[in-house]
Amino acid sequence: MNAKHVSRLLTSILNQFADTTLRDDARFFARLAFQFRDVATLANELYGGREDYVETLTGIVRTLHQAHHERIRRLGASSPNPDWYLSQELVSTMLYVDRFAGNLSGLAEKGEYFQELGINLVHLMPLLDCPPGANDGGYAVRDYRRVDPRLGTTEELASLIERFHRAGIRIQLDLVVNHTSDQHEWAQKARSGDAHFQGYYYLFDDRTIPDEFESSMPEVFPQTAPGNFTWVPEIERWAMTVFHDYQWDLNYTNPEVFREMLDVMLFLANLGVDVLRLDAVPYLWKRLGTTGQNLDEAHTVLRLFRACTAVVAPEVVLMAEAVVQPREIVRYFGTDDYEGRECETAYHVSLMVLLWDCIATKSVRLLRRGLESIPAIPRDATWFTYIRCHDDIGLGYADEDIRACGFDPFLHRRFMVDYLTGRFPGSPAAGEPFMFNPRTQDARISGSAAALVGLETALRNGDEDAAAIAIDRLIMLYSVVFSFGGVPIVYYGDEVGVLNDYRYLDDPATREDNRWMHRPVLDWGQMERRHERNSVEGRIFSRMQRLIAIRKRLPEFSGEHPAEILDAENDHVFAFLRYNAHHRTLVLVNVSDVTQAAAASLLEYAGVDAHSTDLVTGDPVRREADRVVLPPCGFCWLRNAPLVEQP
Asked: How many angstroms separate the Cα of 245 from the Cα of each of 135, 182, 191?
């Protein structure tokens, strides 16, 4: 669309509004005018072939205007800092409200705990209203505007957000944009025969089209939810249900679905939410003859969400939950004309799984190869880095990277599953296979970080030496998470070494899904042991707390400055440089269980003094001839200038 056409279209739409407050609101009108070309162009790509295109666009503008006034009413005028998510001072955690603190009221009392650790972004895992029992861990949403009453009320959520904001803590929520619960009002009306709401979903009279889809669409949960369609007897139709039979996929070819979900997104933003994690975004658009994942139209939907959000709440950040192949992930930041204008953040899934590869192989070859294969991301985008989250670990390496390291992709993945589940001889890991596919032999892995690094096995065996090295492995992994770049996530419980929680087996609603073993119900008696210096909890918490504190004082760790991966001349040592115009910090990480050495020439390259001290331990760098020596599972952060002591 050229500028003149866009201008005429905007004028035409504004003239349809009976009240003139739209034009009179200078802040809103300025943002709308700035974003409108993107809004109109992207909406045209999706819906331009429809006769009601202008009506669709008018409805989107009306939704934005209403949300803008609601934001002013609830939150007041603000001076947005749209780049806040790039700061090195940002450190996140993710948690289930009920499993962490019982409910929202209990969580509101934990602000001091987060401040003690150094957390200033709290991701509240799914907390919107969902049916009891089987609900995919809260991702089958029944009501987007209501908090699950078992956790509290929407008013309590808004109050918690306000309280945490005053304490300098931001809030992140999940928004499930691909599907709803089959008990959602829209699905219930569709089930009762309402043609308008049947258009919100993919519904088919017979198996002809579903069978065509099935011929190219993979299964997400082949063991527990085989197939991608579910028979709905009340209306004698097949509903597309890619995830579970109780989650109906939304049909974004219907512009009313986009407008409804935009309205939901802005409703949550107007509660004060800072980050919206958009769930299952690769699946947003379906087309026959494809996998139904990562289609161009899915990216167009996300770009339109982003442009619209920027009109009403420019400081709100969108995160793409896209667990896909490494080179595919970067597309969710935006490409070509929309580079940096899709989602601002995404999970660094590749870094996570490659770090677990290091634990199993004691080598950084695949880590280096995999990271170097990922295209650079836009300057205004950043990763969320992590080693564990609520989900399983999928071995989503690129096959060509595995082959380049001399491994067979099939055999290497099988080795990884065996190692992380403790089936490989000598492995101390205590994970479990998840969603084993007997046809392809594929599997993912469940388990807490502490269990996967061997702490659970060591404690069960009463082996103090094994426990010590397991703790070192855990801290070593987090040292990379805190330093490599992006927003680090401390998955709840990792900060004190929480093990697998096997109580999920006692609940019929969870016993078939072993991911609940790493979604623990916290024991706050155990959490209190973080104050005992020699306890397992205290040893982990204090070291993690120190890493966070140091990270926040290193501007070169900002998301604006990507890591430069270096060659340590040792396949067991991961080396990278973080730098800005003024400071340079060299990070060296030994991923093996024995002493290793890296090339001392890295110090000169990084501009680091040969006699500098490790920022983390305060100890001088250990040199032997032309090598820098690292202890088992050891690491160091070496800087070209000392940290200025804080008062």
From this structure: 10, 8, 14
- How far separated are the first and last CA of the chain, in Å rounded? 56
Closest CA to 134 of 604, 510, 625: 510
Final residue before a domain boundary, out of 75, 99, 132: 75
Same domain, 392 and 492: yes
Q: Is 604 one of the catalytic residues?
A: no
pLDDT in tens, 178-234: 999 999 999 999 999 999 999 999 999 999 999 999 999 999 888 788 999 999 999
Catalytic residue among 279, 357, 456, 501: 279
Q: What's the pTM?
A: 0.95
User: How many other C-beta atoms lie within 10 A of the C-beta of residue 473?
Assistant: 23
Domain count, the chain: 4
What's the pLDDT score for residue 4?
81
**Residue 587 near residue 578, CB atoms below 8 Å:** yes
Residue identified by tokens 């071995």 is 395
- Residue 546 CB burial class (10 angstroms; 0-12, 13-18, ≥19): middle
CB 315 within 8 A of CB 306: no
**517 and 405, same domain (yes or no):** yes
- How far CA 340 is from CA of 38, 160, 312, 491, in Å, comes to 13, 31, 19, 27
Helix (H) and strand (E) counts for the chain? 24, 24
585: domain CATH number is 2.60.40.1180
Annotation marks residue 321 as catalytic: yes
Q: Would you tell me the crossing angle of helices 349-361 and 464-483 to the nearest 10 degrees?
A: 150
129, 148, 321, 456: which one is catalytic?
A: 321
User: What pLDDT does residue 24 have?
Assistant: 60
- Per-position DSSP letters for 68-120, written without gaps between them: HHHHHHHH------TTGGG-TT--EEEE-HHHHHSSHHHHHTTHHHHHHHT--
Q: Within this chain, do residues 517 and 436 fall inside the same structural domain, yes or no?
A: yes
CA distance 53 to 59: 10
Residues 215 and 311 in one domain: no
Residue 16 scores a pLDDT above 80: no
How far is residue 638's CA from residue 613's CA, in Å, rounded to a whole number?
A: 7
- End residue of a domain, out of 249, 265, 283: 249
- DSSP category for residue 636: E
* Domain coverage including residue 623: 562-639
Whether 647 shows a pLDDT value over 50: the answer reads: no
Q: How far apart are CA 332 and CA 340, in angstroms?
A: 9
pLDDT at 591 > cutoff 70 = yes
